[in-house]
Each structure stands twice: as C-alpha cells, then as structure tokens.
Amino acid sequence: MGGRRRNRWFARVGWRHLVAVLAVLFSLFPIVFVLSAALNPLGTLSTSELVPTGGVSLGNFSGLFERTAFERWFLNSLLIAGVASFASVFLSALAAYAFSRMRFRGRRVGLLSLLLIQMFPQFLAIVAIYLIFGTITDLWPSIGFNTPWGLLLLYLGGALGVNTWLMKGFFDTLPRELDESATMDGASHAQVFFRIMLPLVAPILAVAGLLAFIGTINEFLMANVFLTSSDSKTLAVGMYGLLQGNERNNNFGIFAAGTLLTAIPTVLVFQLLQRYIVSGLTAGAVKG
Amino acid sequence: MSTPLSGPGSATQAPGRGPVGSRPPRSRDHAPITVTGLAGKVLLLGLTAGIALWAAFPLVDGEQWAGLALLAATTAGLFYLYLTRRHIPAKYLVPGTLFLIAFQVLPVLYMASTAFTNFGDGHRGSKDEAIVAIQTSSVTQVPGSAQYALSIATTGDPATAPLVFLVTDPATGAVSAGDAGGLRRLDAADVTVTAGGRVTAADGYTVLNVGQASARSREVTDLVVPTAGGALRSSGLSRAYEGKAVRAYDSGCDCVRDAATGRTWTADEEVGAFVAADGERLAQGWKINVGLRNFTRVLTDGNISGPFLGALIWNFAFAIGSTGGTFLLGMLIALVLHSPRMRGTNIYRVLLVLPYAMPSFAMLLAWRDMFNADFGLINNLFGLHVDWFGQPWTARFAVILIQLWLGYPYMFLVATGALQAIPRELTEATSVDGASPWQSFRAVTLPLLLIALSPLLISSFAFNFNNFNAIYLTTEGAPFPADNPTNGATDLLITYTYRLAFGGQGAQFGFAAAISLFIFAIVAVVSAVSFRRTRKQEEVYS
Fold first, then answer.
1. How confident is the model over A111-144, as pLDDT tens digits?
2. What's this model's pTM, rounded to 2 decimal places?
3. How many CB pairs under 8 A join A and B?
C-alpha cells in the first residue's frame, strides 16, 4: 500500500524533483569548483578539486589584492558598467517614449532601422573603431584609449538598439488616457515623461538596466582593444591577463577568488530583481 | 500577436500619479514653463556648450577645420532643437541617435570603405611615407660618421609616451631634439649639458634615467631620426651616430635602389609595394584601393575559401546548437517545474539561475581550465585522458556544452514567464477532451511558447552567431590544422576576423573588414527571413 502510494507520488511529483535536482547539480558544479579553487590554500589549477579537501584558507583573496590591481579593475568595471547601463537605459527610454506616444514622419523607418542596426554587433566594426579612436586619442587624450570615458562613449553607441524596442513595447501597454488627461490639464510633454511615464515603467527600467549592466561587465573584446595600461583595465581584461601564458596554472586560485568577488554585485541585484526579471523578459519577448 | 501575457506593466499601473494639478485645460502648444524645466534646460545646454568648447581647442590646434565645422554645426543644431518649441519627437530621439551615429553607424561605414583597400601592416600610409620609411630604416653606419652624445627623453609618461632623442653635436655643441619627424634645434638656455656633452635636463622634456631607458631599449633601437644627410640612430643608450641611407628612392625610374648591392625595386601601383624583378617585395608598402579583390579573395583563393566555408558551416552549427540546446533544456526544466503540485520551485529557481548571474567571461575561463587535458576537472572527475581542445570534435562538443551551461538559465527564466502567462484553462480543456499530456503540449503549449519566444530565439541566434567571448576565452579557435595557423576548428567568423585584424601575423585590416561585411550580410539575411516568417508586418509598424 505504502509502496504504491510512493510510486504514485513519484509518478506525479517525485520525478519532477529528480529532474530539478539534476539540473541544479549541472548548474552548480562549475560554481562549486570555482569556490573550492578559491578556498584551496595551494591555489593552482593542478591542485584544485571539486570539493576542497586540503583545508580552507583565504590566502587566495589576500593574494589577489596584493599581487594584482584587482580593486582598481573592480572599480573601473563598476564605474563603466554602472554609468553605461544607467545612461543607455535613459537614452532608450527617451526614444521609446517618442516612438510609443508620438506620430511623426520617419517613425516607421526609424523603428525598422533600429531593428536592423541592433542585429549588427558593434564590435564587427572594431577595426574602424580602433582607427577612429586613434585619432580621438591624438586630439582628446582624456576620452581616448586607456580611459574609462572613451569606452563609455563607445558603449553608448549601442544604447538605442538594445532596449528601445523592449521599452517601446512596455510603454505601449500603458493606457493613453493617463498621459492624455495630464496633457489636457496643462502638463508639458517633459512632465508627462518624467512624472507619469517613468515611474510607471520602473520595473522594465530596472530589468533593462540590469541586463545592460551584466552585458557591460562581461564585454571583453572592445575593452581588450581599448584598455592596455594596468590602471585602466576592467575586470574582464584584467582577469583574462591573470591566466595568460605561464602564469595560467599558478594564478588559478586567485583567479577563482576574483571570479567570486566579481559575481557578488550581480548576484545581489539579480536576486533582488528576480521577480521583475521573469515578467520583464517575457514582456520584452512578446513585444520584441 | 495577441497572446494575453500580462507583464508588470499592467500590474503596476495602479500607483500611477494622478494628472498634475487641476488647472483649466490648455492646448498642447502652450504648456507652462516650470522652474525645474527651465533650470534643467539651462544646465544641460550650458554643459553642451562647455563640452563643445573643450572639444574645439584641440581641433583648432590641429587645424582640423572640417572637424571644427562639424562640431559647431552639431552644437548649433542641439541649441536650436532644445530652444524651439517645435520638433518634440526629435528632442527625445536625438541624444541616443547622436551616439548611434558617432560610434556605430560611422564606424560601420568607415569599415565598409576599408574593405576596398589593402590597408594593414606594411600598407598603412601614403607612398611618400613608405619611401621615407624605407630610406630611414636602411640607414647604416659608415666609417668616420659623426658620433653624438645621446639622452633619451619623452614629453610625457616615462613608460609610455613617445620617445625623443636629445643629441649634442660634437662639432658645434648645439643641442637638438629629434623624433621620427626630424631634428629640431633647442635653445641653449633651455638645456643643461654635462661636460661630456650629455643632456641632463631640458625644458618641456622628461629625461629618462638608465632604468627607464633600458626598459624601452627596443623602441630606442627602432627610433630613426631623419636628417639632411641621412638619419640618426642610437648605438646603445648614450651614443648616437649619423648614418647614410643605403636605399634611396629614384623618381626617374619610380624605384628604390640599394647603393650597396645595386638591386632595384620598382613601384607597383597594383599591389601598393616596391617589387624587385624576381618578385621580392619590400616590407613597407602603401595603401591603395584594391576594388573587390578582398571579397573575391575569400571566394577564389583556395587557401582561404576552403577553411572559410568550413568556418561558416561550423558557425551556423554553433549558433543553432547553442540557441536550440539552451532553449530545449530551459523549456524542459521550466515545464518540469511548472506544476501546481511542485513545492520549493523558488529555491530551485534561485539555484538554477545562478550561472546566469555569474560573470560569464570569468566562468568561460574557468570552464576552459576544467577541460584542461592534464589537470582539468572533467578528466579528473571521470577518470578520462581526453585532450579536449586538441581534437576538432571534442573541442566543438566542449564549447557547445559550455554555451549550454551559460545560456539555459536565461531560456529557463523566459520560458517560465511565458508558461505562467498561458491560461491553465487552455490545457485543462484539452485534457477534458481526452488529449494526452504530450498531445496537449504539442497542440497548445508549444505553439504558444514559440509565438512568445521566437523573437528572442532570433536575437539569441544573432548573438550566438557572433559570440566572440564563447570561443576566444575558451579554445581561442583551436585546434588548428597543421597547414593553416589562422583558421581553427572552433573558430567563428568573428574570431577569425579578429585574428586577421589584430593577430600576431600582421594586421590585415582591409581583408578583415571584407569578412566583417560578409558576416553583416549573413546575419542580416538570416534575421530578416526569420522575422518575416515569425511576425506580421503590422506588428513592426504598430
């Protein structure tokens, strides 16, 4: 009797738990590996294991701060990703408002060209960007190579394509009566945008901002071409350098420690916003 | 598309603020000017003017009049736009569009024009620059040539700024500063010279100490300062000699002649280089237009077209495999968790999604080392001795598996959201009608999911088609065939292009740009076709 009930339980729910646990194992084992490498006092790739057995120490973390410019990279990454995601979300919210609420000549063309441009990754033109910024570095060294500001400007070039469509879809779901009645009451278009629309779309702003943040933190190619001096590197460029050449085996422990520290801000924000992310991504998916 | 998905947009409408104030209705054109609005406008326009002014000075210094005109026109346009009450949509579109044009559209156009040249290492500048470079690099010391006392200096950071030679003429004692542009006399009052003739300090220059100078000894050796009779080169860090150029350009025959050996290299405008009778080329050439040669080279040069086609096929397989695999796995797990009887879904979700929140660049590098043949985790864990990145198919399998790990949480999240939005009544109705779970999934759930997710799948495909990080941070394109070190078994077109442009074998910007245009065309066609198939045109225009 009990056996049959257990079988029925397994047929209805139990197997779902089994699949979920397997999936969780698949998700977690590389992370556990990195965690154990970070805590492993020997700190090399050849001594790392899935579960730390050789004792636990924080030596890799202190090594990371003593031997590399990690905190510098970390701040650079936070600065660039923070400002870039904020600015790009703001720029695309502006554009999405215009596309959603206003009718003007060139609107169709504008929307379609955004869709098209979005498909062309900016870094395919990396050769041209490299040459253009060579000139910019000569003229304005403070926004040229090896500066966070130049890289920031570069990232903002792709600001419109990424999020405008997603946000326009969201603006479209807000009833027009809201802003029309405000306009009737004498609000200007700027007041409508800043005081009525923006608070209402805050969830999608948060999601788009987080996605842009993750994307910028992980951007490697342009940052690698752009930033060569140790002080200006981002996490992606700096930590890539840790595992270059002969140091690859020796530095694995401090690299793993750096990986964990890098994940902290993202994981925190991610868990905070997870509720929005599920629905925000779906809304984006539907509205394209 | 009218799937009744309710995003947070509809859920969060309630707390919206009511209409501002309750003044009598006014027409749209005469909204009042508020203090905050005015202050904001003044602040932003002031900032714009400040930035424009700051940007103008270097342009004036460099006598870049076209750039200055463009800057002035843009600034004037911005002022006009934000001071007038008309063109309201433009007020919202221009800021993003400016960045788009400057850092995305212009580079693409510039790159497209580069694709028709032979631009790259050895073909960077004009013919005149190439001639100067050839002559100065052939400078050798002749017996009895003058020896100068040398100090190495810069005008900026001792570690990175361009080098300058400070030399003292042994005959006259005059001090000059020289760089690749030539020698320039310095005022004797501005410099401090030792008895031996070495310069120890000079106004406007930072003299490097021995340690700093020897750290850059390669650059010191490479620096050639053209002079009237030949050129200055360093011998060691404290002496320089004036030598004669062995190779000289003769405009009569449009050729370069080597005085020592008598060989001549004739200018060939077809290839942008000086070519000897036996076909030997001088390394230093110049930039020319090559028309469609870069494009036809991809198709006709057997050394390139074969590997290129292979990379193209693998590129498609990789993009389809990564997108399809992550979608299938993500959807499967979302379906498994999507049951009213399931408990603990929140915990599962938090744990499942962790890979998505980890920094992907670092996890790619960690995965690379997990596949390490000697002490990687995968081989250790399963007791294998596989050289994962050493064989084409295991390497391909490995990068797809890594992509699966990185990408499926995203698809899982999205599929979860889409599943929650499908009304339960629909699937319940099918089961009342006697359909099996599989049938109702096939007939109801999957089509609705696909409608909701297909735009995402397309953009995911487009992203993975050019997923530079996925390859560059793991295999770097390896393994490479023995006869072709430029195009490996896991190379995507984008990593191949990157190696052409920035790889160690000499930059080929023109050719790399041509390949980029190929990629553009492929991605655009694929995306356009799929968009046509998956969405009604009205959707796009809505």
1. 878 877 776 767 778 878 888 888 888 888 888 8
2. 0.78
3. 364
